[in-house]
Amino acid sequence: MTHGQIVNGLPVSGAWQDGDPVGRRRFGPATDRALEVGGTLPGARLTYETWGELAPGRDNAVLICHALTGDSHVSGESGSGHPTPGWWRGIVGPGLAIDTDRFYVVAPNVLGGCQGSTGPASRAPDGKPWGSRFPLLTTRDQVVAEYDLMRHLGIARWHAVVGPSLGGQRALEWAVGYPQQVSKLAVIASGASTTAEQAAWCHTQIQILELDPCFNGGDYYDFAPGNGPHRGLAIARQVAHTTYRCPRELEARFGRDPGYREEPLTGGRLAVQAYLEHHGHKLARRFDAGSYRTLTRAMLTHDVGRGRGGLVRALAGVSADVLAIGVDSDRLFYPAQSQQIGRLTPRGETAIIRSAHGHDGFLIENDQVAALLAGFIG
To answer: Residue 178 contacts by C-beta under 8 Å, 6 or more apart in sequence?
Structure first.
């Protein structure tokens, strides 16, 4: 499969492939997976990483669900098969808030992802990449796959399930769909169902990807190197990254300043334009456009109340202790969504952290997040 230049040991499209360095990854069993919308995804598997040791009583396991463009590499450095350092290495590790000296931490790469788990770049039974044939996945499909991984690991009940952003949607689906398997639930900067505004952001990004002529309906994996839909993915990421930050921060950091030695009046960029382009191209070098569409579509369809009598009834069935953490400046998942989870779950509470960084505060405000999680999980 040749679909991009090689950067940091990975194709520009970012899809992990057989033969790439494995790093800390482990592989769950391949399973023919029935899907919520009908049909089957054959031979589906998850990759995952673990830290710490499972206690003899098997009662110290913590599941971490990553956000949209995250992966299983929660803690540790980059290299040896991992394109980025651990995305929550300030939270997960020995002596940290999620203490790997005490807890057995499991972090899977989500079904539909591109860092080892089955996704659009994976090979279908005919030996060709799934591409446009990859089915629609929902949050429930992804959680069912994680439930099977839990059983494979011999874990009967999670001491805690923790997830930020898109991972928070899966974490909440865990507590609603498998209430007896979750003791504690921490949902960070997330919501119980996708709002109309969030669906609009998802729709826009999917359209941008699909309009890139190199996307080719999703069948681009055998294109010549460098000819994949990298521009469409980069622009979609620029739209998303705008929602991850807040207006106050963007104005304070960039204002109307021109980019480095550039003059907007003669065709140059403002500094904020250069900033967004940097983050767009950065993602295109480590992530797969097909997975980005798959996971964004899953986010668009997220609703824990679907088929369960509505959101209020679904949340009322959660038996876990719940901590819903919001970010005061978040304009993607507004704090009101966190407050809703805390209010409607029987054993729920809400905490709002202060941040000048918007939605990405869950990645940046380590001290505040750590203090809340350490007290709740420990």
So the answer is: 143, 147
